[in-house]
Amino acid sequence: MSLFTEQEIEFLRRHRVGRLATVGGAGQPHVVPTLYRLVDGVFELGAHALKGRGQERLYLRHMRVNPRVAFVVDDLTVDPWYPRGITVKGTAIVHDEGGEHLSPRWGPKWVEIKPDWVSSWGIDTQPMDPAVPRTVGGRTDPA
Predict the structure, then answer these.
(1) Residue 63 DSSP code
(2) Among candidates 71, 87, 89, 88, which has minimal Cα distance to 122?
(3) What CATH class is the domain 6-132?
(4) What is the pLDDT of residues 93-137, one digit of tens each?
(5) Which helix (H) or strand (E) holds 60?
(6) Which residues, 6+ apart, have CB-to-CB distance to 3 below 8 Å?
């Protein structure tokens, strides 16, 4: 069962880029924009294969230590002022192979984010209405 409403799913399908937040073992946060797609309520993220870079991306290193992540997809219309977006929190799974299924130009590594917390604004509500978080099983914010 998806945590997303039909309007939220449509919003996510119309957008391509979100911002991924991770925290590594030293407790330092990191945010990076990334392409994504939504498949059956799960986010799939990949990246272009970078040549000549021997070190794994920081967000992947973070997720191997701490799989809890946050992911935001949003936009803004300025006339009239209308912010909209979705924040999810969940568990990330790093896959070392198969990223090419997301795009033929991408490298083998890819990430699945399985949300267990979601909050949106301006999609099912007016843009300045307070967001109401939803969780799997009705739990409080999993932090």
Answers:
(1) H
(2) 87
(3) mainly beta
(4) 999 998 888 888 788 889 999 999 999 999 998 878 888 899 987
(5) helix 58-65
(6) 41, 88, 115, 116, 117, 118, 134, 135, 136
Q: Which two tokens stand for residue 49?
A: 């294969």
Sign of CA dihedral 94, 100, 104, 105: positive
Beta-strand relationship, 106-121 and 81-95: antiparallel
In the block, residue with structure tokens 């209308």: 82
CB 110 within 8 A of CB 95: yes
What phi and psi values does residue 78 have, to the nearest 5 degrees?
A: -100, -20
Top-confidence residue, 8 or 136: 8
